[in-house]
Amino acid sequence: MNVGIVQQTCGSSKDENIAKSIEGIAECVRQGAELVVLQELHSGIYFCQAEDTNMFDLAESIPGPTAEKFAQTAKEQGVVLVTSLFEKRAPGIYHNTAVVFDKDGSMVGRYRKMHIPDDPAYYEKFYFTPGDLGFEPIQTSLGKLGVLICWDQWYPEAARLMALAGAEVLIYPTAIGWEAGDTQDEKDRQLDAWMISQRAHAVANGLPVISVNRTGYEPDWTGVTEGITFWGNSFITGPQGELLHRSSHNKEENVVVTVDRKRTEDVRRIWPYFRDRRIDAYADLTKRYID
């Protein structure tokens, strides 16, 4: 399967961001992509840097105008497309939602972000209601896609449940970066941890992983913090965590990588983690903490 990833900067113009994403999709298709994955919240700025009720105006219903644009793009380009939209479900109920379109333009599924962070400059709990669709792979003409979003990537439970439900690949649209006040050593540790955790999901589940992150500097419009420099480094791994591609930290890139899904069967035969799982002993995983 030829996988295209679009790593881009985003500014205040929604139309310009969408146009850039659509051109990135077209460039990936010209390179032979069958599946294209966009980064988290690619239609606008990363508005979660501060709590501002005006930012809810950026949300749209699904289906809605932005979803329709990407549906039409998927159809015109003949590609399976993973997008990431700010969903208005009802007054006061908003989700961080990945929407998947098949190559005929049909919307074949959506995933609402389950794990919602609340950290300095990542005030997502203010904006997003936790997802309620569970960890269900999305069936496409290319197979079952295990779509998760950003903060979900730190949770092995999410990756495992997607794999157990038959996902053939794990996909993480992402928006993560460095704060100006961090030392270089701390920045390096954060980036390494981010990559290690997702490569570990590939190893533990015998699945390819596709992680697509933003790049570029985005200021905090309130002036409280010094903004975020999104660290890029979008990457794709094989089912043993081996790096098939790693993007730069500071450049926009439209890249296509071939992923051999058949290797999942071979890898799981030599590393049979699913066979050896002690499902009789895992009940305590549903507890917050074991006292």
Report what the structure shows.
There is one protein chain. With 291 residues, the chain is an alpha/beta fold. The chain has a single domain, classed as 4-Layer Sandwich (Nitrilase/N-carbamoyl-D-aminoacid amidohydrolase). 25% of the residues lie in helices and 27% in strands. A six-stranded mixed β-sheet has the order 5-4-3-2-1-15. A hairpin with a 2-residue loop joins strand 3 (80-90) and strand 4. The protein is globular. The mean pLDDT is 97.
Number of helices: 6
- Cα end-to-end separation: 46 Å
Q: What is the topology, as strand order, of the major beta sheet?
A: 5-4-3-2-1-15
Strand content: 25-35%
Low-confidence stretches: none
* CATH architectural grouping: 4-Layer Sandwich
CATH topology assignment: Nitrilase/N-carbamoyl-D-aminoacid amidohydrolase
- Give the total of beta strands: 15
Q: Identify the overall geometry.
A: globular
Order of helices and strands: EHEHEEEEEHEEHEEEEEEHH
Mean pLDDT, nearest integer? 97
What class, by secondary structure content?
Answer: alpha/beta
